[in-house]
Design a protein that fits this description.
With 267 residues, this protein is mainly α. The chain is built from 13 helices and no strands. Helix 7 runs antiparallel to helix 8 (147-158).
Length: 267
């Protein structure tokens, strides 16, 4: 257990690196090694964050069943006091968001409701500390059926102190675009998010690359659901990001490219 914090840091760094090129065997190894060797010194908050990264890699690869099991066991453990912390709530919301984009059948309004209750209890939806946390909170509340409370986040973000004009514009556009997507307004969502959804363009709103990834995947998903967007234009948008990041296309992106004929209704 004395080596647990150092081992957690190594696993965390490996997961960040594998975003560029996920390797199935290495993901499995990290998960197996982590579950055995992260000792009590790590604590459940950091366990949640470490498994958040690993579960995202599974979701990218289409291994959604494995990803879902990590959500319930480690990222959002039932009844654990870690659920009240900002980091664990962001882990849960960010992962569930990506998982629903990867396989809508695996995520229910009840799953979102479980997180939304903690968000409301802690007041995260009214906290201006983090733009990404506000966007996640708004999306989570909307998915749980609390549209009015989701819109409170827009007002909080609009009056957030200290942001320059471009940062404020980016945050509001990404938040409003995410809500438009949740309501099935895919053309509006893609138009709002287009200038800010890529990894590079979203940097100004803060948080880590992985915490902002739901925004990129939502943008791609919105494009794929807009009948006015050609398949060539969709592929060009995805491949531009792939080339900028010098990585392989993720299976989740490939699936969005191929599944163009998803009914244009909100799931």
């Amino acid at each position: 257990s004395k080596l647990a914090p150092e081992r957690w840091t190594v696993h965390h760094a490996v997961c960040h690196l594998m975003v560029r090129r996920p390797l199935q065997d290495l993901i499995d190894y990290v998960i197996g090694d982590a579950s055995k060797r992260w000792g009590p010194d790590v604590g459940q908050v950091y366990r949640s964050h470490g498994f958040f990264h690993a579960a995202l890699l599974y979701a990218f690869q289409g291994e959604t069943g494995k990803a879902l099991s990590l959500f319930h066991e480690e990222i959002w453990p039932d009844g654990h006091p870690c659920r009240s912390t900002l980091l664990v709530q962001m882990n849960a919301m960010g992962f569930l968001w990506v998982l629903q984009l990867a396989d809508p059948r695996l995520v229910s309004a009840g799953d979102w409701d479980d997180i939304a209750k903690e968000v409301l209890k802690g007041g995260l939806h009214r906290d201006s500390l983090s733009i990404v946390a506000l966007i996640m909170s708004s999306y989570c509340l909307h998915r749980s059926g609390r549209r009015e409370q989701a819109l409170e986040c827009v007002a909080v973000l609009a009056r957030r102190p200290g942001d320059d004009l471009e940062t404020a514009k980016a945050g509001l556009a990404l938040l409003r675009g995410s809500l438009a997507f949740a309501e099935g307004r895919y053309a509006e969502a893609s138009q709002l998010m287009a200038p800010y959804a890529s990894e590079h363009d979203s940097e100004r709103i803060g948080a880590s690359d992985e915490q902002r990834l739901p925004l990129w995947l939502t943008y791609v998903s919105a494009l794929s659901r807009d009948p006015k967007i050609s398949k060539d234009r969709l592929r060009a948008a995805v491949m531009k990001q792939v080339r900028m990041q010098a990585r392989a296309i993720w299976p989740i992106e490939s699936a969005l490219l191929e599944n163009r004929r998803v009914p244009a209704t909100a799931y």
